[in-house]
Structures are given as structure tokens and as C-alpha cells.
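Handout, section 4.2: multi-component inputs.
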Amino acid sequence: MAEFVFKLPDVGEGTAEAEIVAWHVAVGDRIEEDQPLVDVMTDKATVEMTTPVSGMVVSVHGEPGDMAAVGSALAVIAVEGAETADGVKAEKAAPQRPESTPVSTPPAPPPAAKPQASPAPVAAARPPAVARIAGAKPLASPAVRRRAHELGVALQFVPGTGPAGRIGPEDLDAFVASGTAHGQSQGQPRLARREGVEEIKVIGLRRKIAEKMQDAKRRIPHFAYVEEVDATELEALRAHLNATKREDQPKLTLLPFLIVALVRALPRFPQINARFDDDAGVVHRHAAVHAGIATQTPGGLIVPVVRHAEARDVWDLASEIARLAAATREGKAGADELKGSTITVTSLGPLGGVATTPVINHPEVAIIGPNKIIDRPVVRGGQIVVRKMMNLSSSFDHRVVDGYDAAAFIQVVKALLEHPATLFMDGA
Amino acid sequence: MSEAIKAKVLVVGGGPGGYVAAIRAGQLGLDTVLVEAGRLGGTCLIRGCIPSKALIDVAAEFDAMSKAVGGAHRGLSLGGTPTLDLAQTLRWKNGVVDKLNGGVTGLLKRAKVKVVAGWATFQDAKTCQVRTAGEPVTITAEHVILANGSLPVALPFLPFGGDVISSSEALDLDRLPHSLVVVGAGYIGLELGSAFRKLGSQVTVVEALDRILTLFDAELAAPVARWLEKAGVAAHLGARAKGLDTKKGRHALVVEGKDGEELRLAADKILVTVGRKPNTEGWGLEAMAVDLTGPFVKVDDRCATSMRDVWAIGDLVGEPMLEHKAAAQGEMVAEIIAGERRRFDPAAIAAVCFTQPEIVSAGLSPDEAKAAGMDPLVGLFPFSANGRARAMDVADDGGFTRVVARRDDHRILGLQAVGDHVSELSAEFALALEMGARLEDLAGTIHVHPTLSETVHEAALRALGHAIHI
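Output:
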């Protein structure tokens, strides 16, 4: 038998190390070529590593959450030679096999002998439950039904491993042993104390987020500024555009309009469309507006970037935001799409609330968050009228943005949004 | 001064529900009393299933012998015509009944059940007075199991009495009626009507609905209708019996035909089999504070009534009115009283009809499956392609076995058959349904050759699209 050492390959983007997110195998497992081995994460992209060989896992190095350097050994796999009846051949063949294969050139697949022929099956796991058709009665023999009734178990909650999801005696035993039966049949008293603490390792994306947030808060003296915006006309325009748009055009949300407003306002406030390299003590003021769009994904917060927002119209912006959000939620956003923003927009949509104090996406210096639009009574010309009002919450890096400038900037944005025609007028 | 008995369990009714409950209670060590006014065994043993099957079997044998007259039947011939001595047949039949009645008596005794012969009338839910041949007996019990059974339904314009008979009297006729009119083409009427036809009576059937055997679907009932026609049994469907016109001792049943025309059907005997009703009157049920649902005693899935520790089983609690259901409930209730946790949740209760040919059905028919919102997979295998059916000369009466399954996961929803001897297939049908079998399970079970059960295998294969013998 030969041992194959699986080393962490360079997973792109010129990274020197990656974080181990999850192991798909354990020591002693039999694995097949191309079977998932381990998930590693670099700069918000998680990559599933598959094994280039079949064999038995001899050892794994690193726990989830550990950082592994590119080129370091992640796993050792005993590759099975041609195990004929005596197995001697395999022994002889071993030395000729590459002892430690570079990852870039995976070895030829192991010869003939199929892994099924090898001994030592992995610990006998229970077969997976077979999905029952929704609404169909659980299938079980009279003896199983009777025992379930005696135990107070409702069979529709018991996973069946037989054909068509039939529940056998062993399925019922497993269900009872799992303790699930107790919880559901007896229920919890309403005011019972709850005990126990669940320990969650902060790893992977969550650790990235934690580090980034901590870094931003430690480095940046934030200040928040909240202003209200009368969005009545903007909403009327938006509704009209959505009602009359072509089939192939995307549905417009508020975000594209807000970004257009930022694009219009930012040239007058170059210190706000900037990245502050505080280690070097340099502010990079950007001509282009690369707008970060804070996006909630199943794993946590990620900020994909709409590049060159200044060169896009509202339709283009809406399409791009939708595409990026979908790609990010599905984990398919490329590394290029996740970095380089010069200012970030964070919107909670219908959960927008009254005001927020967003955390700046370091090394940027500003972040803008629209709050919820609601009908509110306001005074216009001495009359109380109902208008669609929205608050705009923002945070700025006080080291490089003065409060006066920030307030002036937001007032310009407010004016643009309240008079939506000016969003589309040159010289406005 | 009346005798007083205190017991843990009182069972009222010695039919197959009651006596099974009593035996099981006795086995479980419960102090049990059973009250029965008639003979132990109830409708089933004394005046229903068993005696009717005895008569049906005799009729089938007589029919086979009749076919052999003149040497026309598979090389068999009889020199003369066979003769029937109905009195002797009845004696033999009564012997069968006596044997089973004696068996039940012995089983109850062995289970240490005290049997009180007499009519029980309840004063309250836990106390009844029994009118016996001697002193009245008052019985008080912790638990009462009501197993009072059912009675034939009478037609108001055709009350039982004289030559208007129910199934009970039909099994004890001392003379074969020359002509018999059966009112109600359900399974009881057609079983007995067919038997009398085979024995030589002229039989006419009157049915208010537009087809016979409405308990079963039309496809299953069709071979029976065909036999009736071939045997010369006129069936008036969609027709209503109006009353009896008797002149000089000769009866004519007045019937309103399908198109409103009046028919007069001459008859020696009129057999009324329009259904059975639960026996809820005349024994003090109203004193027990037990709720009813429709005509039946209301019970939950443990056969518990609305009164604590009063239980009811069998025909008294609803359809299907079948012996095997009553017995299963009786057994269960005894075990519940003994402290076991049980409930009545059969996957299927098979039903059999001993007509010519026989019908058996368990679970859902294709139409019932569709009505339940499913798109069923149906496999049907005809007896004409079965070797054993051929060898027994029963292959050509339109018999078949049919399996109904879910199309998506192939679980079997129902199994039915029509054909001679198919009643014995009921066991496989019920077992397949109870065990949650799929088509592949039936298809994967090697069925003995040559038997009728091969049709079950083939029906499953056919549903799967690869029957061998068709």
C-alpha cells in the first residue's frame, strides 16, 4: 500500500493560507476518488476539496477553524494497490508509486481492484430513511403499530427505512432510543426551566465577519448622522417605472435610486468616496464609485460590489444588484466581486427600522443605510399631510470626514431623492 | 329473592364479539360473566355465516351432481337425477351448529367465564337484571362490554311472519319453496337465493337500486350477475316491493318496476334481506347514558362508549357488520380492561361474499382510491389464464384477481377477487395490506403452482407492467 499525502493546493487569489471549514471524512473512512474531503475558506470563498485518489484515510491534520498554509499536509490517505488474493503484488507495487505526489499532478487512479472488493467496511451505519409521500399514512405492520401505540409514539414522526418508507421494528427502536419520542409525545411543561449551553465555534465566514467588524470598530471613530427624506415623489416614480417597464427589465427597488443619488453627490465630497489606509497614513480618493451592497446570506453578512456605479443607469444598477445578491447567497460570487468597494450601502428592506448606526466597511470611510419607508403625517405649508417618509442613517470615519461635510453630503443626497427628476439631470 | 352477582367484567351477548371478549378476559384472569338469551355463538354461528355456508355447500354439491345427469359433466354421469332430503340436510347442518356451539361453551368454561342464560335488562350503566328460566339474577360489574349484535331490518309493508321470512328462517325451512322471491340483492339475499336456485327453487330477485351487490364495485359484481342470468334467476333492478297480495293461500308480491309498471311475482316464500340494524332496543340501553351515532352506539378507537368503563363492540357500533371485526374488537377490549394499551386500527377488514362465484375484497377499490384523490395503479389477472382454475372448471365464469396500488410508491391500497373459491385468498389480501406490502413484495413472493393464488402474483406483476401468463 502506498500513502498519498493530500496537501493544501493554492486555491487561487494568491493566498498563502486557508481556513479549514469542515471535514467530510474521518480517520478510518474509506473514500472514493473525487469524493469531498474537506472544505477550506479563503477571503470569503469556500472551496470544496476532493480527493484525487481512492483509499483509506490514515490521518487528518487540522480542526475546523484552524488555518492551514498552502502546501501543508491536510490528510494522509492509504491508497490501495491491486489487491489480488494474496496482496503481495500491492506491497511490491507500492515503492513505484509516487511517495508524495504534488497536488498539481494527481496520480493515476489506483489500478483494477475496485474498492468494493476490499475488506473492512466502515462501521455499520443505519440505512437512510426513505422519504414518505406527503399525506400518505405511515406503513407499518400490526406488531409495529401496536408497539408504537403502547409506547405512545405517533408513527408519522418515525422515519422508516424500508421500501416506500415502511417502518420496521428496528426503525421504531432507533426512534425511541434517539429520545425524540419522549419530547414529542409528552411535551414540555409550559414554564419549565431550560438547561444547557450550546458551544458554537466562531469559524469560517462568521470569524471573518467578527474580525472585520472588530477591526472596523477598533480603528474607526464612527459618528452617525440620521436625516429624514420625503420619498413620496421617488416612490411615485418608482411605481410608475415598475408598472410600465419592459418584460426584460428588472423590478426597481429603492437601492438603484439611492446609488444614483450617491454617484451624483460624491464628486462634490471626494473625501467620502475614499479608502483610508490608516497603517500607511494615506487616503485614496477614488474617481470611480464602487458601491458595496451589504447582503445577508445563509452563512452571514457578505458585501458584493457593484463596480463603476457611475457608469450605470437605474436599470443596469438594479440588474447588477440582483445578480450579485443571488450569486452571493448561492456562494457563487467570485473573489473579484467581493472586494474593492469605495462606499457601502446597507439596507434591511422591510426590516429597515427607524434608524441604524451602521459599521463602516473598513477601509472605506462612509456607509449609508436607508430605513423603512412609512406613511407619516408631516407639516407642509401649514397643513398636516401624509407623506411617504424614510430615514437615511449613515456613519462616517471621523478621522477623515468632518461632521459638517458629512451633513452637507447627506443633505445633497436628500435633495436629490426628494426631487427625483434631478437624479437624471446633468448639472443638478 | 333474586341472586346477585358481582363481577369485574360483564359481557352482554354471546356472539363472536361477546364470547371472544369473554374468553380473552378470562384468559387474562378477569372475573367475567357472560349473559346470552339464546344459544352461545350468536347470529354468526347459530343463524348466519356458518349454517348458511353449510347450506350453500350442499347446494353447490347438488348443483354439481345435477350437471352430471346424462353424462355431460367432465365425463361424470349419474344414472338418475339426484334428490334432496331437506330435512336430513337440516339435521346435518344443525349438527354442525351444535358442534360449534358446544365448542364455544367449552372454551368459555375453560376460560372460567360464568355464563348466565337469560335476557339482560340494564337498570344503570353497570347493573343489569337477567330474566332467566329460574330466579332473576342481578349482575353488577366494573366493566360492561355491550355485544348485542344486530337484527334483520323488516319492511313496514312486508313484516316478517308466515311466509315472509328473514335469513334466519330461510336456514330452517322444512320444505324447499317451489318459488322464492328475494327482496334486497345484497350479499345475504344473493348467497341464499343462489343456494335455493341450485337446490331447485325458482328464484326472483327484487332490488331497489339499479344493480346488485352495491357493497362491491360493478366490475366485481358482474360475474355474479352473469351467473344469476344463466341460472334463470330474474333480477328486477330499480324495482320496489309494495306489499303482499294473498288469495286462497297463494302469495303474489306486488312490485313497482323500474318504469313504474306493476309486477306481480308469485311466491311460496318471500325472503326479505334489505339489511341489518344494530340491536339497541329492549334491553335498557336508554338507562345507561350511552351516546349513539346514527343508529349505532358511539365508540372511540378503543371501543369505549361515552360512559366510563362501558364498552361496545361488533355490529352494535357500526359497519362493517362482520364477525371478524367483532371478534377483533372483543379481544382488544378485554386486553384494554386488563390494563393493556390498545386501539382498533386495522389497515383493512376484508369482506367475503359467498355467491356464485365468490367475491372477496380488502382495502380500496380503484374507484375508492380515485375518490380519495389518488391516481391508482391497477393490475387485473383473469382466472381464464390460471391453470388451477381451468382444472377445476371455474375459469370461464369471468373471475379475476385485482390489485390496486399507489402509482408513486407502489404500496398496495386494495386487493379484490371474484371467482370460485376466492374467499380463501382473503388471508393473503389482508396480510399484504396489514404488513404494508408493495407491488414488488407480492411480485417477489413465489406463489405455489398450481393454485388460484398465482393470480395474486400475476396481478401484481401486471400492475408493474410485466405479467408472465397474459
